[in-house]
Structures are given as structure tokens and as C-alpha cells.
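Run: sequence + NDP -> complex structure.
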Amino acid sequence: MQYRRLGTSGLQLSVLSYGAWVTFGDQLGRGEARELIAQCIDAGVNFFDNAETYANGEAERIMGDVLVDLRVPRDAFCVSSKVYFGAVNDPKPTQRGLSRKHIRDACDQALMRLRVDYLDLYFCHRADPEVPIGEVVLTMDLLIRQGKVLYWGTSEWPVEQIREAIAFAHAHGLVAPQMEQPQYNLLHRTHFEHELMPLAREHGLGTTIWSPLASGLLSGKYADGVPTGSRLSTPGYEWLRKRLLSRRDELSAGLARFAALAREVGTTQSALALAWCLANPQVSTVMLGATQRTQLDENFAALEIANRLDTALLARIESCFPVL
Ligand code: NDP
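>> structure
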């Protein structure tokens, strides 16, 4: 494993990390989650990503139980949560969003579910137009001063609002956001490369990127249909299935070229797509999702492939897809 600093902070995260969206609670129970987390720990992964909304809190409960059960020392791993969407179906106004009340309640609940005394990373899962930026920054600053959170950040926030949060924090002597969690993969590049990277460079933000395989589309598994048990066959994710299968159809020629290139390089599509993410030094950590041990084996091979990517090969990879 390799480790990178989270922006200009002192925190070193494994370049490959592991998240729980869709998988924990909706696809996998404690037994399978335990095997996968144990495999990650053995490979040197030190960051596990979660959110209050994943399986309505069940994903965090599973992850917390497994980390305790595996007896991973608290100083050997980092865990995150995210606040915004709420942890129940049809949340009441005080059970969602970024009000001081919900952030405080959500943080305490995440600590209980994850069975930890503090969150290493805490994200505002989306921007909340109904809450003044100062209220959000003050609340996050307080959680840090209370020792409940070490680093706070944003996810999928427009860059102007991240700028506002940083400016408010600096003007009032408060702790500014340290990281952003955006989608970044070969099929989704423009926001990260043109908007976020300049901001991250200017302010020393780290980036924890999500859906590096576009929910599995870049692995090639959907080339001939939707395999039983895969994410796109999971009940409740019909919206994702519709969106990704239409991308697959639009990009079919490029996906076929990418598959051929992976064969030529002597690796899998997944490892090549993840290696491409790793090649960007502004990515602090690439967050994997996986439902099987064999997927993790394949995905960890990206570390070695990343060392083999030169400018020419990167350009050939990128030429498979339009820049979106
Ligand atoms: P990916 O794009 O890598 O998709 C992961 C899924 O792809 C797996 O669960 C598996 O699904 C399939 N897969 C993974 N590896 C392989 C392989 N080698 N071969 C075949 N199929 C494979 O990542 P995620 O979308 O899961 O995102 C990673 C993490 O990012 C999440 O777990 C979550 O923590 C975070 N996230 C954050 C968001 C935010 O708004 N901040 C939004 C989304 C995710 P299956 O086996 O079921 O087909």
C-alpha cells in the first residue's frame, strides 16, 4: 500500500480506501463485510468511508461492529461519516440537512453506530441552501474543538460554496474544511479537473474520490447485460441502473476500446481504471466499493499498474472516452 497526505493536513490515508455505499446493509451482512474489511486491513487500507444515510444507518452499524470484532487498534484506522440526508426514511425537518441541531445529533449517532469516540473525517454530504454557511462552519469547528471530529469537509459542494466556507473560517479564526469528496472517474472528469483541482491546490484541500469504477460500469461487467447480484440488479437502485445502462449504450465503442487496451496492458479493466485515478496526484485516496474478495484482489492490482502508466499510456486510456 502507499499513503498520501490529505491535502496539506498531516493525515496520511492509504491511496486505496474502502466505502460502504449500497454494499453494507443492502447487499452484504456482517459476515461478508467482516471478510472484506479484514482483507482491506491486511492490504494496508487505513480509511473506511461511510454516511448516516447508507442503508439508513445500518452500514455504519455493520462497519462499527466489524472493526470492533476484528480488534483493529483505533490508532491504526480512519473512519468517516457524512451528514445531510438523514438516517431514516422520510426524515423530519430536524432529522436532515446541515442545521446546527442535525449536525450535532447526526455526529453523536454516527459515533454510536460506528462504535468510536471520534470521527477522523466528517463530511457535509451536500450543500444546504437553507442553512447559513456560518452556522455550518461554526458547528463543524465546535465538533473539532470537542474532540468528536478530527477533519471536516464537504461532498459534492459547488466550489463557490467551499470558497465561502473557507473564507468564513479564516475570517473568524475557525477550522476550515480540509477535504472534498467528489465523484471522479474516466467517465466523469470535468468538475474535478477544471474546478476542484485549482481550488484544492490553492487551499491545500485533500480529495477522497467516489465511484472510481462508475459503480462497476468501467469493470466491463455490464457489457453483455446485468449479472444477478450485481449493484445494478439490487432492488431500490433502479434509478442507477437506468442511468448507467444508458451511459453504457452511449459509450459502447469507447468501453470496447478500453477493454482491448486493458487486455493489451495485461490487466483488468478495473485495475486500469483505478490506476488512472491513482495517477492524478491531486487525488488523496481512491475509495473502492466491492462485494467480493476477488474484486478487491483485482482492484488492489491497480497499485502496481499505476507505476507502469506513462504519459503515452495515460493519453491512450483517456482517448477511449469523451471528456465529461
Ligand atoms: P465503484 O465505482 O468502484 O463501484 C463499486 C462497485 O462496483 C462494487 O460494489 C461492485 O459492485 C463493483 N465492482 C468493484 N470492483 C469490481 C471488480 N473488480 N469487478 C467487477 N465489479 C466490481 O465505487 P462506489 O460507487 O462503491 O464508490 C466508492 C465509495 O465512495 C462508496 O462505497 C461510498 O463510500 C463513497 N460514495 C460517496 C458518494 C458521495 O456522494 N459522497 C456517492 C457514492 C459513493 P457489485 O459487485 O455489486 O456489482
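>> summary
Residues 100-114 form the longest helix (15 residues). The CA atoms of residues 226 and 233 lie 7 Å apart.
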